[in-house]
Amino acid sequence: MTPYLTKRLGVMVFTLWIVVTVTFFLFRAVPGDPSLVLIGPEIEASAADSIRESFGLDRSLGVQYWSYLTNALQGDLGMSFRYRVPVSTVLSEKLANTAVLVLPAMLVAFGLGALLGSLTASRPNSRLDRLITQLFLSIKSAPSFWLATMALVIFSLSLGLTPSGGMTTPGAPRVEGFERFFSGDVLSHLILPLVILAAIFTVEPLMTMRTSMIEILNDDFLEFGHAKGFSRSRITLHAARNSLLPMVSLVPSIAGHLIAGSVIIEIVFSWPGMGREIVDAVNRFDYPMMQGTFMAIAALAILVNAVADIVYTYLDPRVRLT
After folding, report:
1. How far apart are CA 242 and CA 258, in angstroms?
2. What is the dihedral of CA 21, 22, 26, 28, to 10 degrees?
3. Could you tell me what percent of the chain has a pLDDT over 90?
4. Residue 278: CA atoms inside 13 Å, Cβ hemisphere, count?
5. pTM of the entire structure?
6. Do the Cβ atoms of 209 and 117 come closer than 8 Å?
7. Which of 15-24, 35-44, 149-158 has the highest mean pLDDT?
8. Is 60 exceeded by the pLDDT of residue 226?
9. Taking the CA atoms of the chain, what radius of gyration do you get in angstroms?
10. Which residues contact 149 (CB under 8 A, 6 or more apart)?
11. Quick one: which of 71, 242, 244, 276 has the fewest CB in 10 Å?
């Protein structure tokens, strides 16, 4: 197992370096001058030069890249043009806000998908099977921004069941630390975007579980269980347990799609997370914040992929031989 882990770690580091390099040069290829965004279009040339020098934008791209890379290895992601504070300080808060939205949505999507997939597989082609699969396929096929907007209009603006956006109510007492995520105010703002995000991504676990379980229900060992007189619920439980392995390989794909999909959800619901920060950073030519945000998202996606691969390898040792 050790050689496999070493190889996997090397692939992670190399992939992250590629992402950092591509994003660094890609952002600087976008037309625009950060100094104009920092002060305004009427800025004098001398002031603009002073700002570029203070942020290191007057140096060549090669020097900027090497400086950014060496500083990043030491945990220094630079100073945000917009907030005038270290990027890592802003990212720690934004990443926590996104994690509070994405991780529960992922758990709900997989839990609900596994449950409904088992239910539909035990009664294939029944009315219940068609109803559940068609419902979630319709949700998945709808544009996420339209679905989120409709949910916001119906449940927030029309029915008044949930807040209309943001993470907290303006003027509400602010709770510091990790405990703020468990306050009633934050949870009331979280419920609708979480449900929408989870509903959009439930279809993949559902269909994967359903397909895998239908195949396993026809295997010889379960036919033997039928012959021995096992109950329907016991046979379904054995089939569901053996159908979970394909779900592990689905985790990296769902995690990446959830992180990408959360960008739209955060914008529609004004959720102050990583996705919304990416859009703001691009609009303001905030190079350090753009690079730091993309690096954090890439690192998270790469880490999830690596963990899923390691878990899959542990569950199925034959993978180590490939």
Report:
1. 26
2. 0
3. 5
4. 21
5. 0.75
6. yes
7. 149-158
8. no
9. 24
10. 268
11. 71
